[in-house]
Specification:
Layout: E1 4-9, E2 25-26, E3 29-30, H1 31-41, E4 46-50, H2 65-73, E5 80-86, H3 94-102, E6 108-111, E7 114-122, H4 124-134, H5 143-150, E8 153-155, H6 171-177
Parallel strand pairs: 1-4, 1-5, 6-8
Antiparallel strand pairs: 2-3, 5-7, 6-7
């Protein structure tokens, strides 16, 4: 397997949840700790975290969502293969990530109808694209726009249990995911 670094997107305000999603617990693990463990199990050589927390990579472009977090991290992390994962996917596991890491037909790979998690080849083209996207905040500054600009491959969901890709943004979604 090609070495990769991973970035956990944990810089959001968690306003719909009403508390920091990264610190929600599943058993005796926080979502942040669990996600970092899953990424190490998947083979990450380094696990970085976006956001203003201890050892986090602060967002240089506030209010630009995941693109701002990725663009901020690109200033601190090396070029190469990245796995970008949101912190709020409590059912995510290494088996869901493996096909993304294996498919290198394009500069980015994600699951169909699920923009994240995503494998991303960070290079001069990806960096220039991210710089351009954060310079235009608003609807054009999105993961979908990054996918389109990089010609991302959307893997088919054939047989994948999409419950493993559920994001939890509200208390109701959190309760449902943990039921």
């Amino acid at each position: 397997m090609t070495p990769f670094v991973s970035l956990i997107l944990a810089g959001g305000r968690s306003s719909r949840m009403g508390e920091d999603k990264a610190m929600l617990c599943i058993g005796n693990e926080t979502l942040l700790g669990r996600t970092a463990r899953i990424l190490r199990e998947a083979g990450a050589t380094r696990v970085a975290v976006s956001g203003t927390r201890e050892d986090g990579i602060a967002d240089l472009w506030p209010d630009t969502g995941p693109i701002g977090g990725i663009a901020s991290a690109m200033r601190e992390l090396p070029d190469g293969e990245w796995l970008v994962v949101p912190v709020d996917m409590p059912r995510l596991g290494p088996a869901v990530l493996a096909p993304l890491l294996a498919d290198r037909r394009a500069a980015a790979t994600h699951w169909q109808r699920h923009p994240l998690p995503m494998r991303l080849t960070m290079d001069a083209t990806a960096r220039a694209t991210l710089e351009e996207l954060v310079s235009r905040p608003g609807p054009a500054c999105s993961i979908a726009a990054l996918h389109a600009r990089l010609g991302a491959v959307a893997l088919p969901l054939d047989g994948l249990d999409t419950r493993l890709l559920v994001n939890c943004n509200t208390p109701d979604e959190w309760r449902e995911a943990n039921a």
